[in-house]
Design brief:
TIM Barrel; single chain; binds iron/sulfur cluster; 7 strands
Length: about 160
Amino acid sequence: MSLKNGIKLKKTMFVVTTKCNIKCDNCNSFINKYIFPISYDRKTLVSDARNLLEFVDSIEELVILGGETFLNRNLDYLLEYLFEGEYSNKVETITISTNGTIIPNIETLKILKKHKEKNTIIISKYFDMCETIVPELKKFDINYVINEQVHGEKMEK
Ligand code: SF4
């Protein structure tokens, strides 16, 4: 069976963690149901990305998400691979989904800034704390969008 030719994905999701620091009643990823939530280590992130990109010709939009994406502190390794690895030309744009409450580590901010023309951060605004990340994104001149239409109705911090 050959899957290698002619696969052009418009959009696909890449989960980096099943941990979240917010408990939304209506989480559409059922994050609160995980008994043993995990964040994937750097080796797993990069090898999963490589496996995916080996089998496709192109991805228009790769969405990186969790859980809360920035709880995975290995994100910079994945981003470096996606932006600068051997298949970087296969990914057109990267969207990172976040609840906006966690400040990314400095390495992640630097790599997002370096490739700012290729990525956007989408912040789901559940409550005011969700803009915690905004000053850092502004400081590093990283593109972001605040999504006011959220799917979690009742939250506990
Ligand atoms: S912040 Fe997002 S991932 Fe976390 S529980 Fe709420 S909807 Fe789910």
